[in-house]
Amino acid sequence: MRILALAALMLALPAAAEPTPAEVQKVLQRDLHPRGQAGMDRLNQDAVQRACTESRDQPPAEVSKSLQAEQMKSIAFPEGSLIGDWKKGEAIAQSGRGMTWNDKADEPSGGSCYNCHELSPREISHGTIGPSLKGFGKTRGNGTDIQRYVYGKIYNAKAFNLCTQMPRFGASGTLTPQQIKDLVGLLLDPASPVNQ
User: How many C-beta neighbours within 10 Å does residue 78 have?
Assistant: First the structure.
């Protein structure tokens, strides 16, 4: 009998309303404070972030297509080969430093790639948010088209998949063009541990 009374009471209570984006923004502005490299500008959503948030990562196809085309235009491809030093790329992939309140602004950021991806078969710990990249260059080669794809994807992943969780490393200034080339090397160089 008590269970039925509790169920009836729960059904009678009004459902908690989901907060509006403006209400969420107000709480964030109230509770978060700038510190070191972590400024309040991080709370400002651009058109891509807004479209993904408001649609719960399912924006209409025409919106995705338009915003992805806009993001593609933001990719600045360097001249020549896009394959850098895979050894430096491995250090960048392993590094989780940068862009936090206690990181020094003049020190290079890392990519934290292993937080989301499996890269090397000898790596004992890796994330699973992103796909496994083990053997990436071995199966795809390292020609000009794949170099441009990998560089572009690291530079601005939103140009390829609007609501991906992958950061826009180049577009945000988190990684330099040379760091991105070194990560391309990590993925495509036949000597890289990724391709062993």
Answer: 12
Rounded Cα–Cα distance for residues 5 and 108 (Å): 60
For 3, half-sphere exposure in the C-beta direction (CA atoms, 13 angstrom radius) is: 0
- One-letter identity of residue 139: T
Rounded-to-integer distance, Cα 94 and Cα 36, Å: 23
- The pTM of this model reads 0.84
> CA nearest 156: which of 58, 46, 54?
46
**How open is the CA angle 162-134-184, to the nearest 5 degrees?**
60
pLDDT digits (tens, 9 = 90+) for 148-195: 999 999 999 999 999 999 999 999 999 999 999 999 999 999 999 999
The Cα–Cα gap between 55 and 63 comes to 11
**Model confidence band, residue 71 (pLDDT cutoffs 50, 70, 90):** very high
| Structure confidence at residue 105 (pLDDT) | 76
DSSP string, 108-159: PP---GGGT----TT-S----SSPP-TTHHHHH---HHHHHHHHHHHH-GGG
pLDDT at 84: 98
